[in-house]
Amino acid sequence: xxxxxxxxxxxxxxxxxxxxxxxxxxxxxxxxxxxxxxxxxxxxxxxxxxxxxxxxxxxxxxxxxxxxxxxxxxxxxxxxxxxxxxxxxxxxxxxxxxxxxxxxxxxxxxxxxxxxxxxxxxxxxxxxxxxxxxxxxxxxxxxxxxxxxxxxxxxxxxxxxxxxxxxxxxxxxxxxxxxxxxxxxxx
Length: 187
Known about the structure:
By secondary structure, this protein is α+β, with helices and mostly antiparallel strands. Helix content is 34%, strand content 26%. A hairpin with a 6-residue loop joins β7 and β8. The longest helix is centred in the N-terminal third of the chain and has 17 residues, at 2-18.
């Protein structure tokens, strides 16, 4: 029962990251292409359709498929994802925020920010104006030099939500940095 709950939660998180619900064959092809673009791993549309229940086959998903889907969200494996879902976060959200950076009010075009998060992730970004950023350097992250995204607020110690992340010629997606431990930033 718990396993089914976690698989459902994973599917919802994937749909949120893609900004689309998995309802049509075209949606599953889009997810297959997104997985390949980000991870360079091919998962068949049929496998994804089975997982989402689009094909009415009573099949238990392989752990390798679940590993790939959780890696797409930034986890190392299905086991790590399950540990994260089962364990409550160490620090729950509170109305008092840590050090924060309001992009619109505190940055000028050309300002650069260094983002860091666990484990050993480093990403340097440049503010382009209108809440837009460009990655100028990156170590150990899925973000690559030249990627662009939107972001309005950076809160130290909290996950950083990137919207409209564009990587090469791929469709824009949502992305989360520092999902488990939050991000740190410096100018």
